[in-house]
Amino acid sequence: MKKGLVLEGGAMRGMFSAGVMDVLMENGIEFDGLVGVSAGAVFGCNYKSKQIGRTIRYNMKYIKDPRYCSFRSLIKTGDMFGKDFCYNKIPNELDVFDNDTFKSNPLKFYVVATDINTGKAIYKPIDSADEKGLEYMRASASMPLVSTIISIDGKELLDGGITDSVPLEFFINKGYEKNLAVLTQPKGYIKEKNSLIPIMKLSLRKYPKLIDAMANRHILYNNQIEYAENAEKLGKAFIIRPKEKLPIGRLEKNPETLRKVYDLGRQEALDNLDKLKEYLK
Protein backbone atom coordinates (compact mmCIF):
# COMPACT_ATOMS: atom_id res chain seq x y z
CA MET A 1 0.00 0.00 0.00
CA LYS A 2 1.48 3.33 -1.10
CA LYS A 3 1.07 6.31 1.21
CA GLY A 4 1.19 9.89 -0.07
CA LEU A 5 1.68 13.36 1.39
CA VAL A 6 -0.10 16.15 -0.51
CA LEU A 7 0.83 19.77 0.28
CA GLU A 8 -1.27 22.75 -0.80
CA GLY A 9 0.48 26.08 -1.40
CA GLY A 10 -0.63 29.54 -0.34
CA ALA A 11 2.66 31.48 -0.06
CA MET A 12 3.34 32.18 3.64
CA ARG A 13 0.31 30.15 4.70
CA GLY A 14 2.78 27.34 4.02
CA MET A 15 4.18 27.97 7.51
CA PHE A 16 1.18 25.98 8.74
CA SER A 17 2.27 23.02 6.58
CA ALA A 18 5.85 23.43 7.82
CA GLY A 19 4.62 22.97 11.38
CA VAL A 20 2.70 19.86 10.38
CA MET A 21 5.71 18.37 8.57
CA ASP A 22 8.05 18.92 11.50
CA VAL A 23 5.68 17.01 13.80
CA LEU A 24 5.48 14.21 11.23
CA MET A 25 9.28 13.97 11.09
CA GLU A 26 9.66 14.14 14.87
CA ASN A 27 7.28 11.20 15.18
CA GLY A 28 8.82 9.08 12.44
CA ILE A 29 5.80 9.21 10.13
CA GLU A 30 6.96 8.40 6.62
CA PHE A 31 5.34 8.34 3.19
CA ASP A 32 6.18 6.77 -0.15
CA GLY A 33 5.57 9.95 -2.11
CA LEU A 34 5.10 13.68 -1.67
CA VAL A 35 3.56 16.14 -4.10
CA GLY A 36 3.85 19.84 -3.34
CA VAL A 37 2.45 22.96 -4.95
CA SER A 38 4.09 26.38 -4.67
CA ALA A 39 4.99 26.80 -0.97
CA GLY A 40 4.15 23.13 -0.58
CA ALA A 41 7.00 22.38 -3.00
CA VAL A 42 9.67 24.80 -1.75
CA PHE A 43 8.96 23.99 1.90
CA GLY A 44 8.10 20.33 1.31
CA CYS A 45 11.58 19.54 0.01
CA ASN A 46 12.77 19.80 3.62
CA TYR A 47 10.63 16.77 4.47
CA LYS A 48 12.52 14.67 1.93
CA SER A 49 15.86 16.01 3.20
CA LYS A 50 14.71 15.30 6.79
CA GLN A 51 15.66 18.76 8.06
CA ILE A 52 13.37 19.38 10.99
CA GLY A 53 12.95 23.09 11.73
CA ARG A 54 14.74 24.37 8.64
CA THR A 55 11.70 25.98 7.01
CA ILE A 56 10.66 28.09 9.99
CA ARG A 57 14.30 28.87 10.85
CA TYR A 58 15.38 30.44 7.57
CA ASN A 59 12.06 32.14 6.98
CA MET A 60 12.08 33.87 10.36
CA LYS A 61 15.71 34.87 9.92
CA TYR A 62 15.50 36.28 6.41
CA ILE A 63 11.88 37.30 5.81
CA LYS A 64 12.70 40.99 6.35
CA ASP A 65 15.79 40.86 4.12
CA PRO A 66 14.95 42.70 0.87
CA ARG A 67 16.96 40.10 -1.04
CA TYR A 68 14.49 37.45 0.13
CA CYS A 69 11.16 39.09 -0.67
CA SER A 70 10.55 42.74 -1.49
CA PHE A 71 9.13 45.20 -3.99
CA ARG A 72 12.71 46.34 -4.50
CA SER A 73 13.56 42.86 -5.75
CA LEU A 74 10.45 42.88 -7.94
CA ILE A 75 11.42 46.20 -9.54
CA LYS A 76 15.08 45.23 -10.03
CA THR A 77 14.66 41.62 -11.16
CA GLY A 78 10.99 41.00 -11.97
CA ASP A 79 10.77 38.56 -9.04
CA MET A 80 9.27 39.43 -5.68
CA PHE A 81 11.21 36.50 -4.20
CA GLY A 82 14.84 37.01 -5.15
CA LYS A 83 16.09 34.15 -7.30
CA ASP A 84 19.75 34.23 -6.29
CA PHE A 85 19.12 34.75 -2.58
CA CYS A 86 16.26 32.26 -2.17
CA TYR A 87 17.49 29.52 -4.50
CA ASN A 88 21.26 29.89 -4.23
CA LYS A 89 22.57 31.77 -1.20
CA ILE A 90 20.17 30.31 1.36
CA PRO A 91 20.33 26.61 0.33
CA ASN A 92 24.02 26.64 -0.59
CA GLU A 93 25.54 29.01 1.99
CA LEU A 94 23.32 30.48 4.71
CA ASP A 95 21.15 27.53 5.77
CA VAL A 96 22.55 24.64 3.81
CA PHE A 97 20.09 22.21 2.24
CA ASP A 98 21.02 18.54 2.72
CA ASN A 99 20.90 17.39 -0.88
CA ASP A 100 22.69 14.13 -0.09
CA THR A 101 19.86 13.05 2.20
CA PHE A 102 17.31 14.38 -0.30
CA LYS A 103 18.79 12.19 -3.03
CA SER A 104 19.18 9.08 -0.89
CA ASN A 105 15.69 9.23 0.62
CA PRO A 106 13.49 6.82 -1.42
CA LEU A 107 10.48 9.11 -1.03
CA LYS A 108 9.22 10.14 -4.50
CA PHE A 109 9.02 13.93 -4.68
CA TYR A 110 6.88 15.78 -7.22
CA VAL A 111 6.33 19.48 -7.78
CA VAL A 112 3.39 20.97 -9.66
CA ALA A 113 3.83 23.87 -12.09
CA THR A 114 1.63 25.39 -14.78
CA ASP A 115 2.58 25.31 -18.45
CA ILE A 116 1.47 28.80 -19.47
CA ASN A 117 1.17 27.88 -23.16
CA THR A 118 -1.23 24.99 -22.58
CA GLY A 119 -2.87 26.21 -19.38
CA LYS A 120 -2.32 22.71 -17.93
CA ALA A 121 -0.55 21.40 -14.87
CA ILE A 122 2.72 19.52 -15.13
CA TYR A 123 3.90 17.15 -12.42
CA LYS A 124 7.69 16.99 -12.30
CA PRO A 125 9.51 14.31 -10.29
CA ILE A 126 12.58 15.80 -8.60
CA ASP A 127 15.44 13.47 -7.66
CA SER A 128 18.01 16.12 -6.72
CA ALA A 129 17.84 19.66 -5.42
CA ASP A 130 20.52 20.69 -7.87
CA GLU A 131 20.23 23.81 -10.03
CA LYS A 132 17.60 22.25 -12.28
CA GLY A 133 15.62 20.74 -9.42
CA LEU A 134 15.56 24.07 -7.60
CA GLU A 135 14.46 25.80 -10.79
CA TYR A 136 11.42 23.52 -11.02
CA MET A 137 10.62 24.27 -7.38
CA ARG A 138 10.95 27.98 -8.12
CA ALA A 139 8.62 27.60 -11.09
CA SER A 140 6.03 25.91 -8.86
CA ALA A 141 6.08 28.96 -6.56
CA SER A 142 6.31 31.71 -9.21
CA MET A 143 3.10 33.69 -8.79
CA PRO A 144 1.82 35.64 -11.84
CA LEU A 145 2.49 39.40 -11.90
CA VAL A 146 5.23 39.20 -9.26
CA SER A 147 7.47 36.59 -10.91
CA THR A 148 9.32 36.13 -14.16
CA ILE A 149 8.30 33.24 -16.39
CA ILE A 150 10.54 30.20 -15.89
CA SER A 151 11.82 28.61 -19.11
CA ILE A 152 13.00 25.04 -18.61
CA ASP A 153 13.05 21.86 -20.72
CA GLY A 154 11.34 23.68 -23.57
CA LYS A 155 8.43 24.80 -21.39
CA GLU A 156 7.40 28.15 -19.95
CA LEU A 157 6.16 27.73 -16.39
CA LEU A 158 4.51 29.60 -13.54
CA ASP A 159 2.76 28.81 -10.23
CA GLY A 160 1.35 25.29 -9.95
CA GLY A 161 -1.52 26.59 -7.85
CA ILE A 162 -3.09 28.07 -10.98
CA THR A 163 -4.01 24.63 -12.28
CA ASP A 164 -3.79 22.16 -9.38
CA SER A 165 -3.72 23.64 -5.89
CA VAL A 166 -4.55 20.33 -4.20
CA PRO A 167 -3.10 17.50 -6.35
CA LEU A 168 -4.73 14.70 -4.40
CA GLU A 169 -6.44 13.28 -7.49
CA PHE A 170 -3.05 13.10 -9.21
CA PHE A 171 -1.67 10.97 -6.37
CA ILE A 172 -4.72 8.72 -6.12
CA ASN A 173 -4.48 8.11 -9.86
CA LYS A 174 -0.82 7.17 -9.40
CA GLY A 175 -1.80 4.44 -6.97
CA TYR A 176 -1.37 6.16 -3.62
CA GLU A 177 -4.10 4.46 -1.60
CA LYS A 178 -3.82 6.42 1.64
CA ASN A 179 -2.96 10.10 1.60
CA LEU A 180 -2.44 12.90 4.07
CA ALA A 181 -3.60 16.16 2.49
CA VAL A 182 -2.36 19.27 4.30
CA LEU A 183 -4.56 22.23 3.40
CA THR A 184 -3.94 25.86 4.32
CA GLN A 185 -7.53 27.10 4.35
CA PRO A 186 -10.18 26.12 6.92
CA LYS A 187 -13.19 23.93 6.25
CA GLY A 188 -15.91 25.86 4.47
CA TYR A 189 -13.55 28.22 2.66
CA ILE A 190 -14.79 29.13 -0.83
CA LYS A 191 -12.36 30.70 -3.29
CA GLU A 192 -13.70 33.70 -5.19
CA LYS A 193 -12.78 34.80 -8.69
CA ASN A 194 -9.44 36.62 -8.85
CA SER A 195 -9.99 40.38 -8.99
CA LEU A 196 -6.69 40.87 -10.86
CA ILE A 197 -7.82 39.06 -14.01
CA PRO A 198 -8.18 42.37 -15.99
CA ILE A 199 -4.55 43.24 -15.18
CA MET A 200 -3.41 39.73 -16.13
CA LYS A 201 -5.23 40.00 -19.44
CA LEU A 202 -2.97 42.95 -20.24
CA SER A 203 0.36 41.79 -18.82
CA LEU A 204 0.01 38.14 -19.89
CA ARG A 205 -2.02 38.60 -23.09
CA LYS A 206 0.46 36.44 -25.04
CA TYR A 207 -0.78 33.45 -23.06
CA PRO A 208 -4.57 33.16 -23.53
CA LYS A 209 -4.77 29.63 -22.12
CA LEU A 210 -3.07 30.82 -18.96
CA ILE A 211 -5.60 33.64 -18.69
CA ASP A 212 -8.43 31.14 -19.09
CA ALA A 213 -6.92 28.95 -16.37
CA MET A 214 -6.60 31.94 -14.03
CA ALA A 215 -10.16 33.05 -14.75
CA ASN A 216 -11.47 29.60 -13.83
CA ARG A 217 -9.09 28.88 -10.98
CA HIS A 218 -11.68 29.50 -8.26
CA ILE A 219 -14.01 26.93 -9.81
CA LEU A 220 -11.24 24.36 -10.12
CA TYR A 221 -10.02 24.98 -6.57
CA ASN A 222 -13.44 24.60 -5.03
CA ASN A 223 -13.95 21.37 -6.98
CA GLN A 224 -10.59 20.07 -5.74
CA ILE A 225 -11.56 20.73 -2.13
CA GLU A 226 -14.84 18.89 -2.70
CA TYR A 227 -12.87 15.99 -4.24
CA ALA A 228 -10.55 15.89 -1.19
CA GLU A 229 -13.45 15.85 1.24
CA ASN A 230 -15.14 13.04 -0.67
CA ALA A 231 -11.85 11.12 -0.76
CA GLU A 232 -11.63 11.48 3.00
CA LYS A 233 -15.10 9.92 3.37
CA LEU A 234 -13.93 7.01 1.21
CA GLY A 235 -10.79 6.46 3.29
CA LYS A 236 -8.45 7.59 0.53
CA ALA A 237 -7.40 10.76 2.34
CA PHE A 238 -6.86 12.18 5.80
CA ILE A 239 -7.13 15.97 5.89
CA ILE A 240 -5.25 18.29 8.25
CA ARG A 241 -6.14 21.98 7.94
CA PRO A 242 -6.46 25.03 10.16
CA LYS A 243 -9.60 25.37 12.24
CA GLU A 244 -9.92 29.04 11.27
CA LYS A 245 -8.56 31.41 8.65
CA LEU A 246 -4.82 31.74 9.25
CA PRO A 247 -3.80 35.16 10.61
CA ILE A 248 -1.12 35.72 8.00
CA GLY A 249 -0.65 37.55 4.71
CA ARG A 250 0.52 35.80 1.55
CA LEU A 251 3.65 37.96 1.65
CA GLU A 252 3.91 38.25 5.44
CA LYS A 253 6.97 40.14 6.76
CA ASN A 254 6.55 39.69 10.52
CA PRO A 255 8.71 36.81 11.82
CA GLU A 256 6.53 36.37 14.91
CA THR A 257 3.45 35.92 12.72
CA LEU A 258 5.32 33.20 10.81
CA ARG A 259 6.08 31.49 14.11
CA LYS A 260 2.45 31.75 15.25
CA VAL A 261 1.14 30.09 12.08
CA TYR A 262 3.90 27.45 12.22
CA ASP A 263 2.85 26.67 15.81
CA LEU A 264 -0.78 26.38 14.70
CA GLY A 265 0.32 23.75 12.19
CA ARG A 266 2.28 21.91 14.87
CA GLN A 267 -0.69 21.90 17.22
CA GLU A 268 -3.11 20.68 14.57
CA ALA A 269 -0.72 17.85 13.69
CA LEU A 270 -0.31 16.89 17.36
CA ASP A 271 -4.07 16.95 17.87
CA ASN A 272 -4.51 14.55 14.95
CA LEU A 273 -1.41 12.44 15.51
CA ASP A 274 -3.02 9.33 17.01
CA LYS A 275 -5.85 9.32 14.45
CA LEU A 276 -3.34 9.77 11.62
CA LYS A 277 -1.18 6.87 12.85
CA GLU A 278 -4.24 4.66 13.02
CA TYR A 279 -5.32 5.73 9.52
CA LEU A 280 -1.92 4.99 7.99
CA LYS A 281 -1.68 1.49 9.47
List keywords for this structure.
281 residues, alpha/beta, eight-stranded mixed sheet
Q: If you had to describe this structure to a student in words, what would you say it looks like?
A:
The protein has 281 residues and is an alpha/beta fold. Helix content is 46%, strand content 16%. Strands 1, 2, 3, 4, 5, 6, 7 and 8 form an eight-stranded mixed β-sheet that branches. The chain is globular. The mean pLDDT is 97.
How far apart the termini lie comes to 10 Å
Mean pLDDT: 97
Major pleated sheet:
8 strands, mixed
Low confidence ranges: none
Helical amount among residues, as a percent range?
Answer: 40-55%
Outline: globular
| Backbone CA Rg | 17 Å
Assign the structural class, choosing from mainly alpha, mainly beta, alpha/beta, alpha+beta, or little secondary structure: alpha/beta
Beta-strand content estimate = 15-25%
List the helices and strands and how they pair.
Layout: E1 2-7, H1 14-26, E2 33-37, H2 39-42, H3 45-48, H4 54-62, H5 71-77, H6 83-94, H7 99-104, E3 108-115, E4 120-125, H8 131-140, E5 150-152, E6 155-159, H9 168-173, E7 176-182, H10 197-203, H11 208-215, H12 217-233, E8 237-240, H13 255-280
Summarize the structure.
It contains 13 helices and 8 strands. With 281 residues, the protein is of the alpha/beta class.
